[in-house]
Amino acid sequence: MKISRAKATSLIKGSAGKMLSVTFIKKDGEKRQLNGRLGVYKSKHAPLTGDGLKYEPSAYGLINIFDVQLKAYRMVNTETISELKVAGTSYEVVSEE
Fold first, then answer.
1. Is residue 95 part of a domain?
2. DSSP string for 8-52
3. Tell me, what CATH number does 32's domain have?
4. Which residues pair with residue 93 across a beta bridge?
5. Cα 60 from Cα 78, distance rounded (Å)
6. How confident is the model over 53-70, as pLDDT tens digits?
7. How far from 60 is each of 27, 63, 77, 78, CA to CA, in Å?
């Protein structure tokens, strides 16, 4: 099923901590697939310092997702998402034109 980037962002934010898979282009141009989830606030593999982020990721079109394979937080650029799988449904993300 084809969806817009805005709909993909909405699906990710609405995943309520469930597992998701997102394919996107990294800042260096490399294609990457991330398996992770939102809502991870404490992990023995990626401890929180309590300082928080120094900026608001959504202001830059980013979503902070916990990568379960690397056991670390990663930023996903919503403008470069090409594929998304949430709740067992796969989506192809197309740009709004």
1. no
2. HHHHHHTTTT--EEEEEE-TTS-EEEEEEES-----SSS---S--
3. 2.30.30
4. 3
5. 9
6. 777 777 888 999 999 999
7. 13, 9, 8, 9
3-state DSSP call for residue 58?
helix
Q: Structure tokens of 17?
A: 């901590």
- Residue 3's pLDDT is what? 92
Better pLDDT: 67 or 43: 67
CB-count burial class (<10 Å; 0-12, 13-18, 19+) for 74 = middle
Tell me, yes or no, whether 28 lies in a domain: yes
Give me the chain's average pLDDT, please. 85
Q: Are 84 and 22 in contact (CB under 8 A)?
A: yes
Enclosing domain of residue 68:
2-45+55-88
Direct distance between the N- and C-terminal alpha carbons of the chain, in angstroms, rounded to an integer? 17
